[in-house]
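note to self — DONT lose this again. spent like an hour looking for the file last time. sequence + predicted structure for the chain T wanted, 241 res
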Amino acid sequence: MRRERRWRRAAGSVLIAVAFVAVAIAISRGTGAGPPKPGSPQARADASAVARLLRGVPQSGVTLGSPRAPVTVIEFADLECSVCQAFALGAERQLISHQVRSGEVKLEYRSLCTATCAGPLGRGGFAGQQAAAYAAGRQNLAWYYVQIFYAEQGSEGTAYVTPYYLDGLARQVPGLRYRKWRSDSALKQLHEAVAVDKRAAARQGFNTTPTIVVTGPRGRAHAIVGEPSYGMLLAAIKSVA
């Protein structure tokens, strides 16, 4: 009996310790509560990883890569979508590191509304968060914003996207002029651009995020619905080249 009680106490202590560690990790990541505090180790790590990924790669608006790249990869996505996050931090980063950096491919970001369309209006709503990335694009830094957003994405359905969250991301983008970004993010034309992207997706029958469209130099196109692997992206690029 004593041995059993000791075992139960030991097991309970282990469970408490595991729970404590899990909570500590969640807090350090800022999951569901916005980005890590500016200057925190996690914020610095996220921003540094994105800087290494994108440094030296041309950007123009929402396009990443050489304008002369023969293949265009358009990503219809939702910044709060967890499947989009998996793609952005996985296969897409591989594509950027190799085919985009080499000049073979250019990437274009487009908005596609999913469950977050029912979220709050204003800067924390779908159009507001997407416009925040487009506002960074007015300084040719959209992909920094997009990649940092995905790196520090919270849990869907937790209403973590607030003006504070969006501002915190902007302050991590290297070289971003914050006041200009803050003003641009409220521009009506950027919110209208989100609606234009939605209509473009609807015309092509796209209703899933991410949806990837790979187009070659002769206009041949290949659409991938859902999260593609890096190998799937390479196969699609080869098929349209």
